[in-house]
Write a structure and sequence with these properties.
It is an enzyme of class 6 (ligase). By secondary structure, the chain is of the alpha/beta class. It contains four helices and 13 strands. Strand 2 and strand 3 form a beta hairpin.
């Protein structure tokens, strides 16, 4: 079931026209930055967006301007380690050619106030379907801060099948709304 949803959602996301995607990314970035400003967030974990994912590079630039300390994940065996990144030059292709930190200072997960979470599909109860590696479920199981799924409105389903190890996010920010599950 999840496999079919992954395939369908990836195809749908890949079909979003570039100009529309750019506008959606801008809306999501503004909402996410507002979300952090309202909560006086000082530290954030962003993912290095690739392919048709919600773009995180605009958010990274804003975080630098607002002096929000930013970390990025790096795959280490079956887990994600987090590292402080000041500049895009500290990222290089890693796991599955996704940009990962190198030559960066290791961060502790409890230092992170907000975690931006990628996904292929989310539901209204804030459960998510990722790419199937379980990396974010393992990370979210140990988090102290808030987790925020970043998604296009088209990625929100009424309900997705969940398993025992699935961990939901606290909020979902789309180009049209903020879903609060706290």
């Amino acid at each position: 079931m999840k496999k079919e949803i992954r395939k369908k959602m990836l195809e749908m996301r890949n079909k979003i026209e570039q100009e529309i995607k750019i506008r959606k990314d801008e809306k999501i970035a503004l909402k996410f930055i507002d979300f952090m400003k309202q909560r006086h967030i000082k530290t954030v974990l962003l993912y290095a967006s690739f392919g048709s994912e919600v773009d995180t590079w605009r958010i990274f630039e804003q975080c630098k301007k607002l002096s929000i300390k930013t970390a990025f994940p790096k795959v280490k065996e079956k887990t994600l380690e987090v590292y402080w990144v000041k500049d895009i030059s500290q990222l290089a292709k890693g796991y599955k050619s996704i940009l990962e930190p190198f030559n960066a200072k290791k961060a502790e997960l409890d230092e992170i106030e907000v975690i931006a979470v990628p996904g292929l599909a989310f539901d209204k109860k804030c459960f998510r379907i990722g790419y199937g590696g379980g990396f974010y479920d393992r990370l979210l199981a140990n988090k102290k801060g808030l987790s925020v799924g970043l998604a296009y409105e088209e990625q929100i389903l009424d309900e997705i099948p969940i398993e025992n190890h699935d961990i939901k996010v606290d909020f979902i920010i789309t180009d049209e709304r903020v879903i609060n599950c706290v």
